[in-house]
């Protein structure tokens, strides 16, 4: 049943207000005068399909949302704007978030075209009692990390590429330029499912931690439409739990212990053992060379590299697991901050991961499905070009392909 122009106008107004956007801002983004836009919302001026498509993008919606029989007043982005008004006040951040959601929706539609429906139900969930204290939050984060590692069969080894791991679990990932205080955010959209974003401006190892942190929110905080993780709010119980999860998930205790033991360290200065037979027990005590078990900064650098974390993350983990004392922690942290860790990294000839140059699993999958949908004539060449531009591909990228709808073969584009 077709909706009336008045109902369409009402929906446009509701979506704009839910997105915390003024009529002036919407008019500017649409490329029309404010009086002209006001007439659209008043139902006195019809809106073109191109204008409606642009408005849907601005409000983090799909154009079909406005034309459907039922209309939801609030979606994931709108809920985020309401809960975090300071995010809505940053136009450049909003634009990146809208692009992320648009990409997620387009990928979902491509999967539907190809019979590969993205099932939100595949994202597992855990239920825990309400958090009562920071210690409770730390314990829950630890148990959650152990349970999820066990479910995924990860053992005590280093994680694979984090974004690929999350994508394999049905969680969309993205990178957005955010303010320094914001490390990442989680969105729960009824059509896209879960979408986690990390701050592109942060170091790649910090982004890795952020993605895992946001994954904790996906696993246990899914009752919320949107969450923003800020360094200034790290004391919040849900943030404490997510940080505990990330630390334990990235650096599992059993894995850290095995690694330290492999270095011939981690033993007490006076190891002892009790021998028992039917006649009684005998306590035997040994003695390691003085200082032989003390962890050095080069040990920390190797541990951090092996598990794909920063030296500071490794130091905090070693302190929490009581491999180093508070005094040793402060001494090693001072050395790290003085730049010695970088010198050791170079001396050990440890590769520096080029995370910007690594294969972008999301981009590759997105464009691969777009080509397949075009070949099956599910989308037009114009739509294929639109999707390529949305992914940041050059405008002439498609000219390198001899793809025609219905054709199987493509010519290989040389990158010489």
From TrEMBL:
<dbReference type="InterPro" id="IPR001387">
    <property type="entry name" value="Cro/C1-type_HTH"/>
</dbReference>
<dbReference type="InterPro" id="IPR010982">
    <property type="entry name" value="Lambda_DNA-bd_dom_sf"/>
</dbReference>
<dbReference type="InterPro" id="IPR010359">
    <property type="entry name" value="IrrE_HExxH"/>
</dbReference>
<comment type="similarity">
    <text>Belongs to the short-chain fatty acyl-CoA assimilation regulator (ScfR) family.</text>
</comment>
<dbReference type="InterPro" id="IPR052345">
    <property type="entry name" value="Rad_response_metalloprotease"/>
</dbReference>
<dbReference type="GO" id="GO:0003677">
    <property type="term" value="F:DNA binding"/>
</dbReference>
<dbReference type="Pfam" id="PF01381">
    <property type="entry name" value="HTH_3"/>
</dbReference>
<protein>
    <recommendedName>
        <fullName>HTH cro/C1-type domain-containing protein</fullName>
    </recommendedName>
</protein>
<dbReference type="Pfam" id="PF06114">
    <property type="entry name" value="Peptidase_M78"/>
</dbReference>
<feature type="domain" description="HTH cro/C1-type">
    <location>
        <begin position="12"/>
        <end position="66"/>
    </location>
</feature>
């Amino acid at each position: 049943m077709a909706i009336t122009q008045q109902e369409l106008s009402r929906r446009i107004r509701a979506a704009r207000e839910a997105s915390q956007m003024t009529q002036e801002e919407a008019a500017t983004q649409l490329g029309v005068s404010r009086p002209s836009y006001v007439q659209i919302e008043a139902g006195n001026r019809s809106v073109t399909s191109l204008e409606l498509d642009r408005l849907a993008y601005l409000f983090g919606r799909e154009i079909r949302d406005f034309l459907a029989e039922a209309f939801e007043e609030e979606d994931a982005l709108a809920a985020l704007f309401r809960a975090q008004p300071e995010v809505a006040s940053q136009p450049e951040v909003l634009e990146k978030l809208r692009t992320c959601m648009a990409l997620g929706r387009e990928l979902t539609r491509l999967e539907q075209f190809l019979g590969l429906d993205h099932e939100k139900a595949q994202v597992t969930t855990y239920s825990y009692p309400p958090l009562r204290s920071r210690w409770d939050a730390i314990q829950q984060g630890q148990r959650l990390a152990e349970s999820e590692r066990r479910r995924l069969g990860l053992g005590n080894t280093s994680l694979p590429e984090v974004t690929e791991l999350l994508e394999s679990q049905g969680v969309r990932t993205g990178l957005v330029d955010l303010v320094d205080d914001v490390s990442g955010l989680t969105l729960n959209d009824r059509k896209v499912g879960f979408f986690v974003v990390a701050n592109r401006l942060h170091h790649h190892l910090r982004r890795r931690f952020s993605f895992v942190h946001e994954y904790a929110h996906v696993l246990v905080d899914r009752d919320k439409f949107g969450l923003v993780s800020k360094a200034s709010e790290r004391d919040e119980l849900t943030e404490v739990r997510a940080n505990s999860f990330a630390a334990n998930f990235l650096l599992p205790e059993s894995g850290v212990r095995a690694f330290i033991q492999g270095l011939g360290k981690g033993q007490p200065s006076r190891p002892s053992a009790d021998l028992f037979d039917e006649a009684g027990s005998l306590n035997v005590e040994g003695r390691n060379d003085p200082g032989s078990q003390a962890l050095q900064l080069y040990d920390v650098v190797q541990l951090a590299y092996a598990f794909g974390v920063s030296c500071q993350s490794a130091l905090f983990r070693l302190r929490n697991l009581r491999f180093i004392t508070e005094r040793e922690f402060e001494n090693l942290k001072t050395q790290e901050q003085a730049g010695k860790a970088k010198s050791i990294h170079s001396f050990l000839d440890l590769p520096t991961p080029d995370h910007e140059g690594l294969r972008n699993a999301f981009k590759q999958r997105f464009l691969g499905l777009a080509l397949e949908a075009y070949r099956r004539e599910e989308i037009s060449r114009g739509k294929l070009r639109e999707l390529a531009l949305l992914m940041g591909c050059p405008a002439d990228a498609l000219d390198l392909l001899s793809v025609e709808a219905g054709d199987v073969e493509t010519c290989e584009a040389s990158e010489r």
